[in-house]
Design goal:
Order of helices and strands: HHHHHHHHHHHHHHHHHHHHHHHHH
Low-confidence stretches: 1-30
InterPro entries: Isoprenoid_synthase_dom_sf, Terpene_cyclase-like_1_C, Terpene_cyclase_plant_C1, Terpene_synth_N, Terpene_synth_N_sf, Terpene_synthase-like, Terpene_synthase_metal-bd, Terpenoid_cyclase/PrenylTrfase
EC number: 4.2.3.23
Keywords: Lyase, Magnesium, Metal-binding
CATH superfamily of the largest domain: Farnesyl Diphosphate Synthase
GO molecular function: germacrene-A synthase activity; magnesium ion binding
Oligomer: single chain
Pathway: Secondary metabolite biosynthesis; terpenoid biosynthesis
Length: 584
């Protein structure tokens, strides 16, 4: 979400021309003045594009018997795949390739203990000399399997593919398209100091772009897909569907995996369409489209965003809660950015920090329905989660919401006063207004026992991986939205603050900010390696939120203008039928 604010340049505060109140001659008695109506303030309307989906997803009707049938059909292939993962007769190379396919298809969460046990055993037996005789594709796949599951397999295994004389990758590498493709994927898992992977990323990207037009069939689709978005920075659910569609040769090795993937896709699609129906109906019932018509109407897009954090079936309630709270954020964001005057922003911020229904009387009429719904929704959540002693998670979400309101006000005050913040000032407040803290803490509310008070305390320490994901959220947004904001008279983006702070050109500023994003990804990769500070279940939403920022903002402001990437993703997951089970 674009989270920067507007200023007085575009008319937050209307300038009224002074008028003479007496006769210019000063000789005749002044006539009584007619009562003038209070002028409507000039508002910084953004005229956001309307929803491209309208109420399409409200009409969905879930057939519970169909959902149950998929759940039952799920069991047999799930156990067959479990047997494959633990089969001691499968050699190490085949076992790692199997786990790779299971992971790429979004099925790893079904076998956390089995996969970890197998990888732990295989990792302990690794002899780097063994890799001297292994091809690039196989090495790259195994590297990805270990790194994705937290095992720090050394990047030195790729050294043999470099010419010792020139220091560049060998000609053999350029001839191995599948190997280069897998090396390119591997390079996105790099850590600080892994120069060989830095070089591999640049080299493979250039080579793949050079040859992609000469390729055909699945290989051409795979290269195009990965160049657009590598697996590691993509949305897990979408990546699973795309992998199934374009890697038939890899997937079809085991019939049980194909069957499980198909049943899994169909089950998840039904469940997720029902969740989308629920939040869409709620949005319509709350009448936000009528009370705050100036906002971005993006219910399917926000649900997709939250689905990107966790797609597992047991997080259904969590997704609904987090989607509603994130939609509240959209209302608040767009009210501050594209409608309210500075005085109204101050009043709204004060009311949110007071968090009591009596404060509603101090608010402008148009925002009163939103304030009432906001407080009622949180009150219902608090009652619901107090029953099992989990109200602390609701309180954390509420406090984060209050904090972001204060952050929005800070930016509004800067802009109202024509002040461009220093880059450190901007980043301190910008990490708050990125919405990351609200979304990540709200995501914990419905996650259950794993998101206990100890987990929340870890979040509050602001660990390195969390800071990195926040930074990506803030700067990726800024780099892709600053031009649109400028057209609207905006100035307080990270790009502008950086230009001012370091007296550099726009081009240099963007290059430096992208480098910061690149380094933040390395911090995230490092934070996911064993031993982790907390459960992987808590780290995954942090990683996935950074991924969704890349999905939404890599090429443009995909949230404000969702006609490209997000439209394609929503179509794939909720409109296009999941793979048919007929051939199973």
């Amino acid at each position: 979400m674009a989270l920067v604010r507007n200023n007085s340049i575009n008319g937050r505060e209307p300038v009224l021309s002074p008028r003479s109140l007496t006769s210019p001659r000063g000789l005749t008695s002044p006539r009584p003045l007619a009562v003038q109506p209070t002028p409507e303030p000039v508002r910084p309307l953004a005229n956001f594009p309307p929803s491209i989906w309208a109420n399409r997803f409200i009409s969905f009707s879930l057939d519970n018997s169909e959902l149950e049938a998929y759940a039952n059909a799920h069991e047999e292939p799930k156990e067959s795949v479990r047997s494959l993962i633990t089969d001691t007769t499968i050699d190490a190379s085949a076992k790692l390739k199997l786990i790779y396919s299971v992971h790429r298809l979004g099925l790893s969460y079904l076998y956390p203990e089995e996969i970890d046990a197998e990888l732990d055993q295989l990792f302990k037996k690794i002899d780097l000399h063994h890799y001297e005789q292994v091809d690039l594709y196989t090495i790259s796949v195994q590297f990805q399997v270990f790194r994705h599951h937290g095992y720090k397999l050394s990047s030195d295994i790729f050294k043999k593919f470099k010419d010792t004389t020139t220091g560049t990758f060998t000609d053999e590498v350029t001839k191995d398209v599948k190997g280069m493709l897998s090396l390119y994927e591997s390079a996105h898992l790099r850590l600080h100091g892994e120069e060989i992977l830095d070089e591999a990323l640049v080299f493979t990207e250039a080579q793949l772009k050079k040859i992609v037009s000469t390729l055909e069939g699945d290989l051409a689709n795979q290269v195009n897909q990965v160049l657009k978005r590598p697996f590691h920075t993509g949305m897990p659910m979408v990546e699973a569907r795309l992998y199934f569609n374009t890697h038939e040769e890899d997937v079809s090795c085991y019939e049980s995996i194909v069957k499980l993937a198909k049943v899994h896709f169909n089950y998840l699609q039904l469940q997720q369409k029902e969740e989308l129906r629920i939040v869409s109906q709620w949005w319509k019932d709350m009448e936000f489209q009528t009370s705050v018509p100036y906002i971005r109407d993006r219910v399917p897009e926000i649900y997709l965003w939250i689905l990107g954090l966790y797609f597992e079936p047991y997080y259904s309630r969590a997704r609904i809660i987090a989607t509603k709270i994130t939609l509240f954020l959209v209302v608040l964001d767009d009210t501050y950015d594209a409608y309210a005057t500075i005085d109204e922003i101050r009043a709204i911020t004060d009311a949110i920090n007071r968090w009591e229904m009596s404060a509603i009387d101090l608010l402008p009429e148009y925002i009163k329905p939103f304030y009432r719904i906001l407080l009622n929704e949180y009150d219902d959540l608090e009652k619901e989660y107090s029953k099992d002693g989990r109200a602390f998670s609701v309180h954390a979400s509420k406090q984060a919401f209050q904090e972001i309101a204060r952050g929005y006000l800070e930016e509004a005050e800067w802009l109202h006063n024509g002040y461009v913040a220093t880059f450190p000032e901007y980043m301190k407040n910008g990490l708050i207004t990125s919405a990351y803290n609200v979304i990540s803490k709200s995501a914990l509310v419905g996650m259950g026992a794993i998101a206990d008070e100890e987990a929340l305390a870890w979040y509050e320490t602001h660990p390195k991986i969390l800071k990195a994901s926040e930074l990506i959220s803030r700067l990726q947004d800024d780099v892709m939205t600053f031009q649109f904001e400028r057209k609207r008279g905006q100035s307080a983006t990270g790009v502008d603050a950086y230009i001012k702070e370091y007296n550099v050109s726009e081009e240099v500023a963007i290059k430096d900010l992208m480098k910061m994003i690149e380094n933040a990804w390395k911090d995230i990769n490092e934070g996911c390696l064993k031993p982790t500070e907390v459960s992987v279940a808590l780290l995954t939403p942090i990683l996935n939120l950074a991924r969704m920022i890349d999905v939404v903002y890599k090429f443009d402001d995909g949230f404000t203008f969702p006609g490209k990437t997000l439209k394609d993703y929503i179509t794939l997951l909720f409109v296009t039928p999941a793979p048919s089970l007929e051939s199973c």
